[in-house]
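Whether sequence alone determines local backbone shape is best considered at the level of individual chains. We regard such an encoding as a compact summary of how the chain folds. The sequence in question and its structure tokens are set out directly beneath this paragraph.
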Amino acid sequence: MNSRALLHLLQLSSPSLPIGAYSYSQGLEGAIEGGLVHDAASARIWIEDALRLVVGRFEAPIFVRLLQAFSGRDRVAIEHWTECFLAARDTAEFRAETIQMGYSLARLLADLEVADESLSATVANMRDLPLPTALAYGAVALGVPHAEAVQGMLFSWVENQVLVCVKSVPLGQVAGQRLLLSLADAIESVARDAQELQDDELSNWAPALSLNSMRHEVQYSRLYRS
């Protein structure tokens, strides 16, 4: 990967990207409230399980397919995998989260004018644009290689989960960085596997996470929107 593509990847993966990722915990706040996550060890178990069993087996492989579809300007495939992803958001807050961040990223990319006309046409008139679709659109527009884009997407997700733990468990900053460092091998292996899974192997089956998200939607006091 050349230095310009690396810089673009870092920008897309940055927690300062103004798409509102900091306001979501993806179910983690509910797990903290319920006592499932209460220290560094339980935080690591929760994050790695979600990474390997949900993000790595569904969100990341769909992101891979969207990268390929945007590279080929294949609007049919883009719409297909976008619809598959949205249909799998099984709680109201999970669906609202991905649509809000996808919309924000798409608007940011439009304001930055990073995509050529043919690429922009592939998302024109799409009503709901979830985050994986917008992120794939941005990565292709900025010339980020697919394999590195997948790693960046996974790292960004893990980093946000760690930041939730730092603020809400709470963990110290050093403990948070130690946790993030310890998940590097998992991120690498999940990124590799995501690029090899066949369509019939994709799954986001995680009923406990879904139930946890439903409880979080009516949680009396919360910091995060999901």
Observations:
- The chain has a mean pLDDT of 95.
- Residues 40-71 form the longest helix (32 residues).
- The chain is about 70% helix and 0% strand.
- The chain has one domain: 3-13+23-200.
